[in-house]
Design goal:
The complex is a heterodimer. Chain A contains 13 helices and no strands. Chain A is an all-alpha fold. Chain A is globular, with a radius of gyration of 25 Å. Chain B is α/β, with parallel strands linked by helices. In chain B, strand 9 and strand 10 form a beta hairpin. In chain B, helix 4 (83-119) packs antiparallel against helix 10, helix 6 runs antiparallel to helix 7 and helix 10 (196-235) packs parallel to helix 11 (243-252). The longest helix of chain B has 40 residues, at 196-235. The chains are: A mainly alpha, B alpha/beta.
Chain lengths: 342, 642
């Protein structure tokens, strides 16, 4: 019973967070200085009428939110406009319909643009994340087990250096190296590839993916190594490890049966929290390698002042990260008996 | 004025103490040096740089992207400017933004954390929920949006980073405040009615400060990274040439296609240098604040030292007792200082079915001695003398693999405070079965294994349906009994019970003691019972070893100890416990505390607290005197009566 209540509480909290992000997202683009229409279409030849037409087209002529008096039952009707006919409620209504408005720049629905690019980002994050976790966790394990040996210091130094390298810079350096060594330097596939058989295309994409994935892996591997090392060190100084040793178990048995699982548990949550930072890394990698994903979409939209796309991409990323956190939270309470059977 | 002087005088040794520890932490030291170098470069930029960064007057197209040369050590950039000069001045921009942004975020995080931790309740709930929300929102996209919508200026960048990077600080500070809040002196300050502001300023802030310093170091590095990323993505202040901005220009203006690697490598090197320096410093400080490697249980043990003389005794073996400890001495290695002599020259024997009591105050080396028997000492502990014979085999001479066949199979341990001695994520039954599978080869892994586990649990009075429960579902007493069941799993010959009842209430204590005693009679176990409770010893033990400060104070059978104790410490201990046969006797406690292992007195270790101490006791360590067939005590006063 309590478990179900916890579950509902967690889901409710995630929805509340999403709502907060939606509202923040709306007001961020309305309250900060600058007229979106003027900023979005910077052309000196525009007349006042042209601008007004653009404002009407994107709904920017309506009040942002109705005056607060409409909430006062005594004064109902004293406001000039229908409370539902404001930018805020139109925006919320559209969101419910899954409509993220139309791009200033390309005139296409934002949802179309984002759904095209979402998968490219997921492929990149997926491959990089899996590699980084596997390599990082393995290094972290050995490092903690062999604490204070040369192996530990070497992998610790390596991880700290990897952790300190700015993602975009590593990308730039690898790109520089790749461009001198015949690697593809931009995009996801060679133009004109679409008519080739599947395996050729697949190989082409894999080749394009190599450097971005390598960048991603190097940057995040260090972090996972540090987290795993520290988590395992905590576990290895627990009393139950001493018990396991007193039981005559070999070091390998202790690590396998008593330490690793306990040390991996906090990692689940940390990986999810990290997703938020990971997004930052993806934005940089996609920009450097011109990888047509969400991150590049954001940077493009920024440069073109294409606010609907920017707003939509930000919302999508935030919702994805919140959902991932929720999943990690649920997974954790499923994996850890201390939470599960409380 | 006087208090001011007193304060600085008190602060200096603390700083010196910190510096002493910090100096031996290479990671932190390297980080600090890296940081000092870059700050030095930033401050003296005009002196160090070969050119004036503002002179762009005489640049021609021939100056663009020139490779490193004598005139331009690190080449020129897209505007024909000297890369080295821009690199040196770039340090100023990057560091300024980093430090100011970190300052803002630390203040926000610190205030939120302290308020949440100190006031608790609704305030805490609200602040921490807000922190959680901010933690989930991806920060780089948010920063990009905010800066794009406002204006890319140094001021805005500092503000945005500062306003978004406080979440981890708030969480850390809150948990530290919570921990500090429940400490005695804070509770006392509240009890005497000190104001909240006063308590926060005087008692909480000083203890939160170390965390804040570590956090500051890490936040500065994040801020430097964030600034360079924003600048690289074209959101930096175009008038301030930070390292990120240099990379933005180089990447966007053809350094790639012209092969001008120097314009790409050099600024990035600066960022890595600063971030790595700060990270190393942060890691070093963290290690000092939270030293946990000392209890790492899988570190290889230190080599055991055995004297040649002892080895001779080994050969004279005839019929030996079950367990025989000879002149065992254990040191703790102490980071450059002389080792702490935790246990010195302890000898005792244990026969089949016998129960020996090991008695002494906390910190007398009892647990160290017990762990050393099975070579389970933490990595700082080292056996420096003596031997442990079990059935005639010297345990100090066995390899780890050989020792693993003795551990638990022959000698098992019931640990003190079984709270954490059981693995929290495996069921109790599973952990008992593990010992059986390990040590009884060929034991069927089917229903019979489960039956054996149930049998063991029922032996200690735990119902069968608790078998598949996790340790946290057990009560403290049940955990302790489960630990005993686990210790019995492989029918060992010896059980070491290390204060098995300390944390439990009196009723459960009695139950567990009775249980151990009945098991001894039923199964013929030999037990080493570690305790500070002489009452327990009187009821159950055959013989008693009284330890003080790591040495034997007195060693005799139980009647001798109670009726003819000769060592002043034993006598004082006895006076401190109620005797039911003499209800009107006054109880007295021994003033003072046992000696610290790193500051042992020169003479007898008990001398500073001994009511009978004479001059000699403070100068010379007493020998262990034989007073009867099996009665030993170490005290100068007993020399005459020998």
């Amino acid at each position: 019973m309590k478990r179900w209540r916890d579950l509902l509480g967690k889901i409710g909290w995630a929805f509340f967070t999403i709502l907060f992000v939606i509202i923040l997202n709306f007001f961020l683009f309305r309250i900060l200085p600058g007229d979106p229409a003027r900023a979005g279409v910077r052309d000196p030849r525009l007349t006042r009428e042209n601008i007004e037409a653009i404002r009407v087209r994107y709904g920017l002529d309506k009040p942002i939110i109705n005056c607060f008096e409409s909430l006062n039952p005594v004064k109902i009707g004293s406001c000039a406009v229908n409370p539902l006919d404001t930018q805020f409620f139109i925006y919320m209504g559209n969101l419910l319909k899954g409509d993220l408005m139309i791009s200033f720049h390309t005139n296409r629905p934002v949802t179309d643009i984002l759904s095209e690019r979402l998968w490219n980002t997921i492929i990149l994050i997926g491959a990089g994340q899996i590699l980084a976790i596997i390599i990082g966790v393995l290094f972290g394990m050995f490092s903690a087990w062999k604490a204070r040996t040369t192996l530990d210091y070497a992998s610790l130094t390596l991880s700290l250096v990897a952790w300190s390298i700015p993602t975009f810079w590593l990308g730039v350096i690898l790109l520089f190296w790749g461009s001198n060594n015949g690697m593809p330097i931009a995009g996801m596939s060679t133009p004109g590839m679409s008519s080739y058989p599947f395996f050729t295309r697949f190989g082409d994409i894999a080749k394009h993916m190599f450097l971005p994935t390598l960048t991603y892996t190097i940057v995040y591997m260090g972090e996972y190594m540090l987290i795993m090392r520290s988590s395992l060190l905590d576990v290895l100084s627990e009393d139950y490890i001493l018990t396991a040793k007193a039981k005559g178990l070999s070091i390998f048995q202790i690590l396998k049966d008593h330490a690793i699982k306990n040390a991996m548990l906090p990692l689940v949550t940390i990986i999810a929290i990290n997703l938020g930072f990971t997004v930052g890394g993806v934005v940089q990698i996609e920009t450097v390698f011109s990888w047509p994903g969400l991150g590049m979409t954001i940077v493009e939209a920024l440069n073109r002042r294409d606010f609907p796309v920017l707003q939509g991409a930000f919302l999508l990323i935030a919702v994805a990260v919140i959902a991932a956190n929720l999943l990690a939270d649920l997974a954790y309470s499923y994996l850890d008996p201390r939470v599960k059977t409380e | 004025m006087e208090t001011q002087i007193a304060k600085t005088a008190a602060a200096t040794p603390r700083f010196q103490e910190f510096w002493r520890v910090f100096r031996s932490n290479y990671m932190g030291l390297v980080g600090l040096i890296m940081l000092i170098i870059v700050i030095f470069v930033a401050i003296f930029a005009p002196v160090l740089s070969p050119y004036d960064p503002s002179s762009t007057l005489n640049v021609t197209t021939a100056d663009i992207y020139n490779p490193p040369s004598a005139a331009h050590w690190l080449g020129t950039d897209d505007a024909g400017q000297d890369v080295l000069t821009n690199f040196i001045f770039g340090a100023r921009v990057s560091l300024t933004i980093g430090f100011f942004a970190a300052f803002i975020s630390l203040i926000i995080g610190g205030v939120f954390g302290i308020i949440a931790g100190f006031y608790g309740g609704r305030t805490e709930e609200l602040l921490m929920r807000f922190t959680d929300i901010m933690l989930v929102i991806p920060d780089l996209p948010l920063m990009m949006v905010v800066i794009a919508l406002t204006k890319p200026s140094i001021f805005n960048i500092i503000l945005v980073i500062g306003l978004l990077y406080w979440t981890t600080t708030a969480r850390m500070v809150r948990s530290q405040t919570l921990a500090v809040k429940s400490r005695k002196f804070v509770l006392r300050a509240r009890a005497i009615g000190s104001g909240k502001g006063h308590i926060i300023r005087r008692h909480i802030l000083p203890l939160v400060l170390p965390i804040l310093v570590v956090q500051a170091v890490l936040v500065v590095s994040s801020a430097v990274l964030a600034e360079s990323t924003l600048s690289f993505l074209g959101l930096g202040d175009p008038t301030a040439l930070s390292w990120g901005q240099m990379l933005n220009y180089a990447f966007g203006r053809g350094a790639m296609s012209t092969g001008a690697w120097w314009a790409l490598v050099v600024p990035g090197f600066g960022i890595v240098w600063v971030v790595l320096g700060l990270t190393l410093l942060g890691q070093g400080l963290e290690q000092i604040l939270n030293p946990r490697l000392d209890t790492h249980h899988l570190m290889p043990g230190r080599p055991i030292v055995t004297s040649e003389a002892a080895k001779v005794i080994e050969k004279v073996s005839g019929k030996r007792p079950l367990l025989e400890v000879q002149n065992l001495s254990i040191n703790y290695v102490n980071n450059g200082k002389p080792p702490a002599r935790a246990v010195e020259n302890i000898s005792f024997t244990l026969k089949e079915g016998e129960l020996i009591g090991l008695v002494g105050e906390s910190g007398c080396g009892k647990t160290t001695l017990m762990l050393a028997l099975l070579r389970l000492l933490p990595s700082a502990g080292q056996i420096v003398n003596g031997q442990v014979f079990f059935n005639g085999r010297d345990l100090t001479a066995l390899s780890e693999e050989e020792l693993n066949t003795v551990r638990w199979k022959e000698v098992s341990i019931v640990f003190q405070g079984a709270m954490n001695a059981l693995n929290p994520v495996r069921t109790v039954g599973d952990q008992i079965a593990e010992a059986i599978i390990k040590h009884i080869p060929g034991f069927p892994r089917d229903k019979r294994l489960q039956e054996r586990v149930i049998e063991l649990l029922e032996l200690v009075g735990i119902a069968a349906d608790h078998k598949d429960h996790f340790p946290h579902q057990y009560s403290g007493g049940m955990r302790q009994r489960a630990m005993i069941a686990m210790a019995l799993a492989c029918n060992p010959q010896v059980i070491i019970a290390d204060e098995p009842t300390t944390a439990l209430d009196v009723m459960i204590q009695a139950q567990i003691l009775e249980l151990l005693d009945s098991l001894r009679k039923k199964l013929g176990l030999a037990i080493i019972f570690v305790t500070h409770d002489l009452g327990v010893v009187a009821e159950m033990c055959d013989r008693v070893l009284v330890m003080y400060g790591g040495v034997t104070a007195e060693y005799a059978d139980v009647d001798t100890i109670y009726n003819e104790a000769r060592h002043p410490y034993t006598q004082e201990l006895l006076k401190a416990f109620p005797d039911l046969t003499k209800p009107k006797k006054k109880l007295s406690s021994i003033p003072g505390y046992p000696p610290r292992l790193d500051a042992l007195p020169a003479g007898c270790r008990f001398a500073p607290r001994c009511p009978l101490a004479v001059d000699r006791c403070h100068k010379e360590q007493p020998l262990l005197h034989k007073l009867g067939a099996a009665h030993f005590a170490s005290c100068h006063l007993l020399e005459a009566s020998k």
